[in-house]
Design brief:
alpha/beta; seven-stranded mixed beta sheet; six-stranded parallel beta sheet; 25 helices; 21 strands; 17% strand; globular
């Protein structure tokens, strides 16, 4: 087979059947390889950024994803999506078709280039947002493909492969490679024994789960560890629903001092934190509220583990969890289980607010549903919901690129065709990438799309000194009509009252088509968690938002981020640096 076919086959064997992107004259050979493989399908998107977001959503559900773009203009259009995947450990392959080798060697100025020709400029740009990079030549093609894909599998981060047009057509040996890796047995033995001893000697342990449990395919081992140890368990925002919320030792989500004080107390006062896959960032942890470094206790990551500040490298998360589960004693602890989720709200004919919308969504979500929540205020309303045991929440809380959720929903739908997918997005974010609604209809996927129309960038209004600042206004659209612009099977409606929302959600239950609901609220409506989080951010936003106006900082309650960091013994910048460094290590 040729090199393009070899690459497509190797990626398909990782579970990727859909390749997202846009065609360009430098990548046609790659697209033919996708189309000629009976197990793969080409999914053309409306632009490269959307294609990257779609591949991101696909990889979150399928394990890996892939995007194909053309040299220069295409790959740079997609680089923000690749960067977001890098930030959140989403393993996708960015494949770029580039001009022929002779053109590169002669530094010929062809289209999609600079006048000052530099064929490695985009390659160099990707070094900061991918875990491995390769520029294929006649001599290195197979070695480099296998090296890069091996990094993809181990580190669960994006990788980059540039393929000249002539190299894509070269024949290559189809020798079956092995991309998996194994834990260092001696290091694994040491770290599991040390963790088990520390847990067995503790009096008030607590488990804190998060995003990387999902990324490193360790949910089964994590669940077995939680159930064997019988230790109270909580999670950061991106780790929502890692364990059954009805589990008797589930403390609910960790929201620092804004909500659920029992989870905060146990995390802050523990003598043995067992952090599994945590991404310790401002929005994911609701401020840097923990008064110690996580790695000072037990911190289990995808390829390494910290115990009391000592790094143990080259050990898989799932192997560490499995090994500790065998060695540790059951604590059989008890808790006063807090209420999980929203209380039921009564239907009415009043104008819609977040206090009604999110409890209703909680009732609407069923087992095996997948919720894709846009960045901004939406995750603050959705994270406190009580989810069925097998429901899934996907957010982009760390990178936080507005517009991510709509194309990501396309990828999620194609990755999980038998699940109902619910997209919840604000209209400001939706405008950036809404053209992918047409691609959803073209591909026959049928998500429930809920667009919260609050007349502008509400999260930015909250953070601004003056909520009415004109830079937070956006062009208004008839969103429910927009969905019908495309050729496809869609039912759409616009709701402004609680009764209208109830009726619309009921209709979706009987519709075998895409359902698109525009939900209208007033401009400063937001979940309670957003209002509380403004307190910690008031150094940037000017004060706590209440009732559509900003309260001066001196009147707000609760510590801000920098004060929490200072009391923790670290400067704000230092905590951010150490969090990022830990992930890189």
């Amino acid at each position: 087979m040729n090199i393009a076919e070899y690459l497509v086959k190797r990626i398909e064997e990782l579970g990727v059947n859909d390749f997202f992107g846009l065609p360009g004259d430098y990548n046609f050979n790659l697209l033919y390889a996708v189309e000629n493989n009976p197990e793969t399908r080409w999914v053309g998107c409306t632009n490269e950024l959307n294609a990257g977001y779609a591949a991101d959503g696909y990889a979150r559900m399928r394990g890996f994803g892939a995007i194909i773009t053309t040299y220069g203009v295409g790959e740079l259009s997609a680089i923000n999506a690749v960067a977001g995947a890098y930030a959140e450990n989403v393993p996708l392959v960015s494949i770029v078709g580039v001009p022929a080798t002779k053109t590169i060697e002669n530094k010929t100025c062809v289209h999609h280039n600079f006048q000052d020709v530099n064929y490695k400029a985009c390659f160099e740009a990707h070094k900061t947002v991918t875990a491995a990079q390769a520029f294929l030549t006649r001599d290195n093609a197979k070695i480099e493909i296998d090296r890069v894909l091996r990094t993809l599998v181990k580190e669960r981060k994006p990788v980059y492969i540039a393929i000249p047009m002539d190299i894509a057509k070269m024949e290559i040996s189809d020798t079956q490679p092995n991309y998996d890796w194994t834990s260092d047995e001696e290091i694994l033995r040491q770290v599991t024994a040390k963790i088990a001893a520390k847990i067995n000697n503790s009096q008030n342990p607590v488990i804190l789960g998060d995003l990387l449990v999902k990324r490193f395919d360790s949910r089964v081992e994590y669940k077995e560890f939680v159930e064997k140890t019988r230790i109270p368990v909580t999670n950061f925002l991106m780790g929502t629903n890692l364990v059954d919320m009805d589990y008797d030792l589930y403390l609910g989500g960790y929201y620092a001092h804004y909500k659920n004080p029992e989870a905060e107390r146990r995390v802050n006062e523990t003598d043995c934190l067992i952090a599994v896959g945590t991404v310790y960032t401002d929005l994911n942890s609701f401020g840097f509220n923990i008064p110690y470094q996580i790695k000072e206790h037990i911190a289990i990551y995808g390829t390494y583990t910290y115990v009391e500040g000592v790094l143990y490298n080259n050990v898989k998360m799932k192997d560490v969890l499995e090994g500790v589960t065998k060695l540790v004693d059951s604590k059989d602890m008890k808790i006063d289980k807090p209420q999980i989720g929203y209380e039921q709200v009564a239907s009415n004919s009043e104008a819609l607010t977040s206090n009604y919308i999110y409890p209703r969504l909680q009732e609407f979500v069923k087992d095996n549903d997948i919720i894709v929540a846009e960045t901004g205020i939406v995750p603050h309303g959705i994270a406190p919901m009580k989810f069925p045991a097998n429901a899934e929440l996907q957010t982009q809380t760390l990178w936080g690129s507005i517009g991510w959720a709509t194309p990501a929903t396309l990828g999620v739908c194609l990755a999980k065709p038998n699940s109902r997918v619910i997209l919840v997005t604000g209209e400001g974010s939706h405008q950036l990438t809404a053209m992918e609604i047409g691609n959803m209809l073209r591909r026959g996927v049928k998500p429930v799309v809920i667009v919260l129309n609050n007349n502008g960038y509400t999260i930015e209004r909250v953070l601004s000194e003056t909520p009415e600042d004109c830079f937070n206004d956006i062009m208004q659209m008839s969103y429910s009509k927009f969905a019908r612009v495309f050729e496809g099977d869609v039912w759409s409606t616009k709701v402004t009252t609680a009764d209208d929302l109830d009726k619309a959600l009921k209709v979706t239950q009987i519709m075998n088509k895409m359902c698109y609901i525009e939900v209208c609220t007033e401009s400063m409506d937001m979940p309670e968690l957003t209002k509380e989080l403004c307190t910690a951010l008031r150094g940037k936003c000017g004060g706590k938002c209440e009732g559509g106006k900003n309260v001066p900082a001196q009147e707000s309650e609760g510590p801000d981020i920098e004060l929490v960091a200072e009391n923790s013994g670290f400067e704000f910048e230092t905590i951010v640096h150490k969090s990022v460094k830990m992930e890189e290590d």
